[in-house]
Amino acid sequence: MNETIAKIRSFNRFYMPSMNLLGDHYLGSEYSVTEARVFFEIYENEGCNAAHIAQLMNIDKSYLSRIIKKHEKSGYIYRERSAGDSRSYHLFLTDAGKARAEDFINKSNEEIGEVINGLSSDEEQQLTDALETVTSLLSKRK
pTM here? Predict the structure, then answer.
């Protein structure tokens, strides 16, 4: 188990900087990775609530609340009160928010494309298989 932990930590030290996931400026934006990912989660799960995003991202609800307020103030997100629970809100992206999310998605795809550029088809398949294996194995714990 100690060797596995060491390998995972080593991989994280390699992966995070190689994908530009460290620092406060995701893809050259003014947002951290976490702040940018909130755009993606609402984009992919339109009408979701903050509790859903907090669970998906495994982040503190008060931290998420600050991020949502920041995006709302910037005109990227709006809320609609839930008909079933007046304490809950459904989250949506404005047109500007959707454009921002799509910009992040496109830039991320380009960056990843640059990272894997030069891999053969077989190597791409090996990478895809390895990623699916990691996802499958670590999903079992949930």
Answer: 0.84
Helices (H), 23-94: 33-44, 50-57, 61-73
pLDDT tens by residue, 65-111:
999 999 999 999 999 998 888 788 999 999 999 999 999 999 999 98
What is the distance of C-alpha 22 from the center of its chain? 13
HSE (side-chain half, CA atoms, 13 Å) at 97: 26
Structure tokens at 100: 């921002």
d(CA 38, CA 64): 8
Looking up tokens 């404005």, which residue turns up? 94
Q: DSSP letters along 15-41, please?
A: HHHHTT-SSS-GGGSSS-HHHHHHHHH
Q: Which residue has the higher pLDDT, 35 or 17?
A: 35
